[in-house]
Design goal:
The protein has 14 helices and 15 strands. By secondary structure, it is an alpha/beta fold. The longest helix is centred in the N-terminal third of the chain and has 21 residues.
């Protein structure tokens, strides 16, 4: 019997390996080179067997020359438009590294062609654009993935399991998320990135949008997709010389019927940070970095929880994209269109609150 089981497992493993070998790689195009997060994507693509880069769309010839030289890219990969690319190559998915303002344009171009789209956070510059993206995706039958660096943190995925699956700290009462760095100018972002990141139209704001979206995404995910009851925000200009058109400091307070989320987004931290604290009825979680998750129950001591590296589709954005395109997986959680529609509504309300000095009531609560 034991020998039969071993033989069966070996046959299953061989069949699985053969299936993976026979599955063609996802034919991926990159649209835009003006978001510096593309620096992380291009080296990863060179190592993957399940994704094949078939083209890059970028009309800015200075950006084309820069990236072609930096990453040793064949000039034949570059196209001036999505239309020019799909006329020559079959494209199954697009990774978008444009300005946030251009996300709507990219989705509206890809949706009729049946091309799934993954974009760098946030989803859109406004709720109007987010609704247009949602409508185009539904009409074209495509999936939209919003990529946040924090989605793939072992600490965040572990915290979600503790909070939503195990319910180990009871109902959430307060979430505090701190995100940001010393500022785009101080850390030396590329001129391609700065050209739109510091523009209130193309970015939808400053630090409030750039880093406020992380907290809004995590809070919405941890709160089961609920819309907050109200949003209140304060923005400031600590560095008006560097950022004359957009805020560089923002605090956003989200209220729920029995919980609060406080989002601190800043281009003025003395160091880079993406950390979070979650407080429940019975205990709390502290996430000081991408790998560390510490829990405290009642007045007891703080204990470190295991945070194994995520695997499968949750390992990284490219694995997730392949699972969506090849496996028919529907994006869920922090990457999903549904959660990011709420995120966009929060950011819209935060901008209005900061402008008027008033709390913005959203009035909703579903789902959980």
């Amino acid at each position: 019997m034991k020998k039969t089981l071993v033989t069966a497992f070996l046959l299953m493993a061989i069949a699985c390996a053969r299936s993976q070998e026979s599955t063609p790689p996802v034919r991926l195009a990159i649209v835009g080179l003006v978001h510096d997060h593309v620096w992380g994507m291009l080296p990863q693509l060179a190592k993957r067997q399940d994704v094949r880069l078939v083209g890059i769309v970028e009309p800015n010839q200075e950006a084309v020359a820069h990236y072609a030289e930096r990453f040793h890219l064949d000039r034949a990969l570059f196209f001036p438009s999505i239309e020019a690319l799909v006329a020559k190559e079959k494209v199954e998915a697009v990774a978008t590294f444009t300005s946030t303002f251009d996300h709507r344009r990219v989705v509206e171009a890809c949706a009729p062609l049946g091309i799934d789209v993954m974009m760098e956070k946030p989803l859109a510059v406004s709720l109007e654009d987010a609704r247009a993206i949602s409508a185009a995706a539904a009409k074209g039958g495509i999936q939209v993935i919003v990529n946040y660096e924090t989605t793939w943190y072992p600490s965040n995925q572990g915290a979600y399991d503790v909070v939503r699956v195990q319910h180990s700290i009871g109902d959430v009462r307060k979430i505090v998320v701190c995100d940001g760095h010393q500022g785009p100018v101080a850390i030396g972002v590329s001129p391609f990135f700065a050209s739109w990141l510091l523009d209130p139209v193309l970015n939808g704001g400053g630090a409030l949008t750039d880093f406020g979206c992380y907290g809004a995404d995590l809070a919405t995910w941890l709160m089961g997709g609920r819309r907050p009851v109200s949003v209140f925000a304060v923005t400031q200009h600590f560095q008006p010389g560097a950022y004359p058109k957009v805020d560089d400091e923002a605090t956003i307070v989200l209220t729920y019927p029995r919980a609060q989320a406080i989002i601190q987004a800043s281009w003025n931290w003395p160091h880079g940070r993406k950390d979070m604290d979650i407080f429940g009825e019975k205990g709390s979680l502290r996430l000081p970095d991408r790998d560390s998750l510490l829990m405290r129950t009642g007045d007891g001591p703080e204990t470190r929880l295991a945070t194994p590296a995520p695997s499968g589709p949750n390992a990284d954005p490219l694995s997730y994209l392949v699972a969506v395109v090849r496996g028919g997986m529907r994006p869920l959680g922090p990457s999903s269109l549904e959660v990011n529609m709420v995120v966009t509504e929060i950011l819209d309300a935060a901008r209005e609150s900061a402008r008027t000095g008033r709390r913005i009531d959203l009035g909703g609560e579903p789902p959980q």
